């Protein structure tokens, strides 16, 4: 496997394969093919959630976990895969009460056909529940060996600080990672208080929407129609000066380095403070090389700075 990065006690490939497409835009056969190719290409870090893909008509949530679990069982490769999943958004398991966390973890373990979750995120914070209760429930799971490490996504700086303080004060399991919405055209949500907290507490960042719903692959261009469920979300970035500026720099660097645009966008993100492994998904095997290429591309300081300057919101 390529060089790994560290998240708590976990050694992971520097890119996490997003499982949100499994059971949505990728059926079981396509999902298996992508997962096989990801592992063959050196990857080992797969991200999913108990709520994926509940938004698809006829689905109930948990489809992605089920596909990943059946794939691992069929390939007998559980020990080769670092599985991250999330709690709190399944239609039948909403929220972060202690009872719900315990029940949702059992559901995820069953769907994943495994006895442990490597990295367990709270998907969306539940401010109706005290952080003491959330951390206490996660600590129970870790002590029981059902979860190896815990992490957090979609949380305010205040609640994150309070959660970390409870862990320190009471000697309980502590978050080792944060999963923020973060990419070249969306920097404001993470850069600031959350980033500073992550630095102080040595949290690894595992950004989602790393390719801005596909915009940062370069396939969205003025006058071009892209057939994708994400086209509306990605296409909006073309309407901003910031988006067009970023795309121009990505094009230039990708041409100079003879690599795909997506690889450059991921390399910029991977080089940012605290970032351990951006998350990107592929619904077909031919989309994978641009993602796996991240492991072999390090931008020069000058290249990274060009992208950083192009992506400044203040210049939009």
From TrEMBL:
Xref: CDD domains: AKR_AKR9C1
Gene Ontology molecular function, alphabetical: oxidoreductase activity
Pfam family membership, one: Aldo_ket_red
Superkingdom as given in the UniProt entry: Bacteria
Keywords per UniProt: Oxidoreductase
InterPro entries xref list: AKR, AKR_Detox_Biosynth, NAD(P)_OxRdtase_dom_sf, NADP_OxRdtase_dom
Residue intervals of the NADP-dependent oxidoreductase domain: 15-311
Assigned GO CC terms: cytosol
PANTHER family (UniProt xref): NADH-SPECIFIC METHYLGLYOXAL REDUCTASE-RELATED, OXIDOREDUCTASE-RELATED
UniProt name for this protein: Aldo/keto reductase
